[in-house]
Amino acid sequence: MNSSVFSFFSDFVFLLLLFIQIPSSLSNDDLFTACKKEFVCGNISAGFPFWGPGRPSACGNPELELKCENNITTMKSNQVAYRVLEIQHEFKILRIAREDYLAGLCPPQFANSTFNRKVFEPVEGNRNFTFIYGCEDAPTTIPRPISFNCKIKDVDGQSGYIKEGENGPGKLCTGSVFVPVSITDFPPDWNMSSLEEQLKKGFEVRWKFDNECWKCSTSSGVCGFDNVANQSTCYSPGMHSPPEISL
Ligand SMILES: *[C@@H]1O[C@H](CO)[C@@H](O)[C@H](O)[C@H]1NC(C)=O
Ligand SMILES: *[C@@H]1O[C@H](CO)[C@@H](O)[C@H](O)[C@H]1NC(C)=O
Ligand SMILES: *[C@@H]1O[C@H](CO)[C@@H](O)[C@H](O)[C@H]1NC(C)=O
Ligand SMILES: *[C@@H]1O[C@H](CO)[C@@H](O)[C@H](O)[C@H]1NC(C)=O
Ligand SMILES: *[C@@H]1O[C@H](CO)[C@@H](O)[C@H](O)[C@H]1NC(C)=O
Ligand SMILES: *[C@@H]1O[C@H](CO)[C@@H](O)[C@H](O)[C@H]1NC(C)=O
């Protein structure tokens, strides 16, 4: 056989073998090591149930992917982009702010800040607001309506207003966005600019406590997520690992 053909053939077989190796290469032991590492970005660090750069998807809930850019941590929930400002692991609390509202009220990403109840649970300490857009006229009958103007789809001067609570746009307006706001430092006599400041400080959400994971940590394992079974799992240190120092 011609040697270059042979070399091509053996390279091909080698590549094929490499390819076949990939799925089985992440053993329980490797996942234990990988998922022990924390996600770190700027001054945010996170372990289970989060994943992202530095933590493979097998280390966290599929809905809790973190991204890092220029030391800024972001995540998406129900298609809405959030900046992660703080993670309190002991209380399972995330403080997040909507990326679109960091730049002002107009125009937002038209989606409500609602959260998957299977992953998150409600917290006390937020106040709900609805920003209503594209109104023919801001109704005057609502108590304390605060109105503003936005350019939406190149149409200037579209009026909008703010209403407390979780509301829809009503008949006179075209869209609405529901956003919680943290009540910490919230001025009692709020106005447009204080509300815009408060949106930048974000609000809190709490992720659900995972009993399986608690059992796992107490048995010196590391929690992860089995994407096939679609549930959290436990990676234990293998026989070749050095003895575990409990965290
Ligand atoms: C993280 O850093 C940002 C700016 O770099 C700062 O505003 C924020 O207070 C810091 N957060 C914590 C929890 O230290
Ligand atoms: C991120 O923060 C680190 C440490 O605070 C700093 O050394 C680095 O330059 C920052 N990177 C960017 C892109 O801002
Ligand atoms: C705000 O909305 C959330 C989600 O719908 C709800 O659980 C919470 O009770 C509301 N908070 C207030 C103060 O109405
Ligand atoms: C937000 O929720 C309200 C109902 O609470 C709904 O009427 C409105 O259309 C929703 N907005 C978007 C952008 O989905
Ligand atoms: C808005 O409220 C804040 C805090 O209550 C206050 O400092 C500020 O002067 C107010 N701005 C306007 C334009 O009324
Ligand atoms: C995984 O389970 C969650 C609820 O725990 C469910 O909402 C989601 O659709 C499931 N995903 C898949 C791929 O089955």
Main attributes of the structure:
247 residues; protein serine/threonine kinase activity; 34% strand; 4-stranded antiparallel sheet; binds 2-acetamido-2-deoxy-beta-D-glucopyranose; non-specific serine/threonine protein kinase; 6-stranded antiparallel sheet; 4 helices; WAK_assoc_C; alpha+beta; WAK_GUB
Note the topology.
Elements: H1 3-25, H2 28-36, E1 39-41, E2 44-46, E3 66-69, E4 72-77, E5 80-88, E6 93-98, E7 120-121, E8 126-135, E9 146-152, E10 155-164, E11 175-182, H3 192-201, E12 203-207, H4 211-218, E13 222-226, E14 231-235
Antiparallel strand pairs: 1-2, 3-4, 4-5, 5-6, 6-12, 7-12, 8-10, 8-11, 9-10, 13-14
The structure holds 2-acetamido-2-deoxy-beta-D-glucopyranose (6 copies).
The site of one 2-acetamido-2-deoxy-beta-D-glucopyranose (NAG) has 3 residues, from loops.
What does this protein structure show overall?
The protein has 247 residues and is of the alpha+beta class. The protein folds into 2 domains: 1-92 and 209-247, no CATH class; 115-201, no CATH class. 20% of the residues lie in helices and 34% in strands. The strands form 4 sheets. The chain has a 6-stranded antiparallel beta sheet, with helices on one face. Strand 4 and strand 5 (80-88) form a beta hairpin. The longest helix is centred in the first third of the chain and has 23 residues, at 3-25. It is elongated, with a radius of gyration of 24 Å. The termini are far apart. Mean pLDDT is 83; it is low at 12-25 and 239-247. Bound molecules: 2-acetamido-2-deoxy-beta-D-glucopyranose (NAG) (6 copies). Residues 110-112, 166, 168, 175-178 line the site of one 2-acetamido-2-deoxy-beta-D-glucopyranose.
